[in-house]
Amino acid sequence: MKFAIFGAGGVGGYLGARLADAGHEVHLIARGSHLAALQTDGLRVESVAGDTTVDLPATEDPADVGACDYVLLCTKAHDVEAAAADLHPLLGENTAVVSFQNGVDSEHWIADEVGADHVVGGVAYIFSTIKEPGVVEHTGGPARFVYGELDGEKTPRIEALHDAMSECDGVDAVLADDISVELWRKFTFICAQAGMTATTRLPIGEIRETDASWEMFHDILTEVATVARAEGVDLPEGLVDEWLDFAQGLAPEMYSSLHYDLTHGKPMELDALNGAVVRHAEDVGVDVPMNEAVTAILSPWAERNDR
User: Fold this and answer.
1) Which end of the chain has the lower number of beta carbons within 10 A, N or C?
2) Alpha carbons 164 and 168: distance in angstroms, whole number
3) What does the alpha-carbon distance between residue 298 and residue 5 come to, in Å, rounded to a whole number?
């Protein structure tokens, strides 16, 4: 099958290489020095699940690629709306656009641009980044990719995608029964992990060791889960405890991508994370004071980094 990877960074580059190794036609869409390296030297993945190097067509112009069976949209959340406007050359009648971002709004933003019939929800659990131009480094995480039609239907295209993903070495492929549950499940944890490491400027180990901060971590989890249930998302009752146990097992020096972006002057995903919790909470009449606090503390930094 023909895949376009829109945003061939840590997540997209990893998936593109694995799909290419499984025999699929893969086109990379990237920009800047990373694109230049992809065009001259190919894509190298350095992974705890096994290294690989692939030589794939790479461009910054989707019109060079044409219609695909699947578009894996792997940009940062704050780039989704701009990216969605550039998707049209990649779309055939039955093309699926699979969104792999942090947050719970990307699928709706993409649907507003290209139509809901093209959109498939996705969740990525992987620690990977661009190590240097042309090189993606996968340092850990389960490399689990979860996806599903927004209405939960098991369509031929989602089953074919599942077959393709399942064939890839180094990929734990999961076809979700209800992708909205999976989106909010991850979102609940990311808002706490990202929000707390960024606001305190400290790793998870020191947050765990400070009672007030650990309680705030717990409260952020609880607030997000409460908003999800108020929107009709059937999250498991034990989700908060599940994520607390998971966070207890993380390496004490672990931060988050939001903290990295904050401290390196890069655009931040705050509006797609804790800021989104505040917006969704207003819509369903739920109080989320801890998420409001995180948003208020980090908003000046997000605005500064955008400038």
Assistant:
1) C
2) 7
3) 31
pLDDT tens digit string along 106-138? 999 999 999 999 999 999 999 999 999 999 999
Give me the residues paired with residue 144 across strands.
Answer: 125, 172
Q: Could you give the CA distance from residue 176 to residue 147 in angstroms, rounded to a whole number?
A: 6
Structure tokens at 166: 């399942």
* Mean pLDDT value of segment 73-79: 95
Name residue 231's amino acid: E
Q: Letter for the amino acid at 218?
A: H
Structural element, H or E, at residue 174: strand 172-175
Residue 237 DSSP class: T
For the cut 90, the answer to whether the pLDDT of residue 141 exceeds it is no
Q: What is the CA radius of gyration of the chain?
A: 19
* Inter-residue contact 95 to 69 (CB < 8 Å): yes
Instruction: Identify the H or E element spanning 208.
Output: helix 204-208
Give CA–CA dist 56/42, Å, rounded. Answer: 6
Range of lowest pLDDT (12-16, 136-140, 195-199, 208-212): 136-140
Amino acid letter, residue 16: G
Say if CB 14 and CB 143 are below 8 A apart.
yes
Q: Which two tokens stand for residue 213?
A: 């901060």
Closest CA to 284 of 229, 245, 239: 229
Q: Name the residue type at position 242.
A: E
The residues, ordered by sequence, that sit 6+ positions from 37 with a Cβ below 8 Å of its Cβ are 132, 133, 134, 135
